[in-house]
């Protein structure tokens, strides 16, 4: 807290948060990594040692290059730094190659490219009005949103333990949204197009982008620019493209949740109802990532990090909306508390039962079903909110 007060006094609290999480990422370097580590090492080798015409046809490894062209060029650029760490990692025939220098390079490549994510979070936070700002720094919406994004539990374990580059990609997404919110539509559209050429999974956000850009940029001749509240009237920011785009994002939450959960934090700091949906969604979604880290040394890490993040999320948003109704009803509280016994059974009880050898899939099955219920419930609640609440314009007139 002392360090936080010093940073606050100097006006650098955001830098302190970014630096703190970067140090934590560095501490996670020696942890377990998944087969995605070898996937990206192989892509480094393919793009570095083969001509462009062979990038998408090379099949020495089962982990063929299957991302869009911009990500291939991204790997190509990284490979020219990688050669100064360990040239052997860039040999296509060195399947499952690993060394201490390779580990350091790949881990630091994720940490370094997260700089874009940090910048995008900063830009998004500038778009938030301080209508609910408290006297204390820790009660301000910008501070809460910054913590929820920068210290995102899902990104920490998926990118910096399991190993992927979702922070970099999420940074492109957030920066695109920030530019639209700032009415810099061409930049926002360009950044989103770039994102699609990095990872095709973001295509399901494209319809929201198309609708918003048509209404707010293409068809606005001498007319006041329509706000996203006319499309998604119940989402928290009430003005601009952010609700429209993130609303569509939230509706697609059942797919690839672990990779996209970070952007849902933007929904939570403007309206109590959305904060409630966010907390159910993010807590359930984060717990659904637990099976990704199945080794014993990572068990205390994932439990501790999720507890810290979840406790902060709930307490900070309860403080932000303390004058409104409780964020959870009894059923939601009971469901979220049920994650505790589920974890105890999966990690500490099931391994000692006779079912472990015959039915080893039971913990994963229970986790998947239980989390699917929570995610589907949050999705349903959002639909009800969007379809039942009156438009913002009508509410203000009344």
From TrEMBL:
Top-rank lineage group of the source organism: Eukaryota
Name the UniProt record assigns to this protein: Dolichyl pyrophosphate Glc1Man9GlcNAc2 alpha-1,3-glucosyltransferase isoform X6
Native source organism of the sequence: Camelus bactrianus (Bactrian camel)
The gene coding this protein: ALG8
């Amino acid at each position: 807290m002392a360090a936080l007060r010093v940073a606050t006094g100097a006006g650098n609290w955001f830098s302190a948060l970014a630096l703190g999480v970067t140090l934590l990422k560095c501490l996670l370097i020696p942890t377990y990594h998944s087969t995605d580590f070898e996937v990206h090492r192989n892509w480094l080798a393919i793009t570095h040692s083969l001509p462009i015409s062979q990038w998408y046809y090379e099949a020495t490894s089962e982990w063929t290059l299957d991302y869009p062209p911009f990500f291939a060029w991204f790997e190509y650029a990284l490979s020219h730094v990688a050669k100064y760490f360990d040239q052997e990692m860039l040999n296509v025939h060195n399947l499952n190659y690993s060394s201490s220098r390779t580990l350091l390079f790949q881990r630091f490549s994720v940490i370094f490219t997260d700089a874009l994510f940090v910048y995008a979070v900063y830009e998004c936070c500038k778009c938030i009005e301080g209508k609910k700002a408290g006297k204390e720094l820790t009660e301000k919406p910008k501070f809460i949103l910054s913590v929820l994004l920068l210290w995102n539990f899902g990104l920490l374990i998926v990118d910096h333990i399991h190993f992927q580059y979702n922070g970099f990609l999420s940074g492109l997404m957030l920066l695109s949204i920030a530019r639209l919110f700032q009415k810099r539509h061409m930049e926002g559209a360009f950044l989103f197009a770039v994102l699609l050429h990095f990872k095709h999974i973001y295509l399901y956000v494209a319809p929201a982008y198309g609708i918003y850009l048509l209404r707010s940029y293409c068809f606005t001749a001498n007319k006041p620019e329509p706000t996203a509240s006319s499309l998604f009237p119940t989402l928290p920011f009430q003005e601009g493209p952010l609700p429209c785009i993130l609303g569509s994002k939230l509706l697609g939450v059942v797919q690839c949740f672990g990779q996209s959960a970070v952007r849902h934090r933007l929904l939570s700091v403007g309206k109590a109802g959305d904060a409630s949906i966010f907390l159910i969604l993010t807590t359930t979604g984060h717990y659904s990532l637990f099976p990704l880290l199945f080794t014993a040394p990572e068990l205390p890490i994932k439990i501790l990090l999720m507890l810290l993040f979840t406790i902060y999320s709930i307490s900070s948003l309860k403080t932000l909306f303390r004058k409104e109704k409780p964020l959870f009803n009894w059923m939601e509280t009971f469901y979220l508390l049920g994650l505790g016994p589920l974890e105890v059974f999966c990690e500490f009880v099931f391994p000692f039962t006779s079912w472990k050898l015959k039915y080893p899939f039971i913990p994963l099955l229970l986790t998947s079903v239980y989390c699917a219920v929570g995610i589907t419930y949050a999705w349903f609640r959002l639909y009800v909110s969007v379809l039942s609440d009156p438009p913002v314009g009508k509410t203000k007139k009344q």
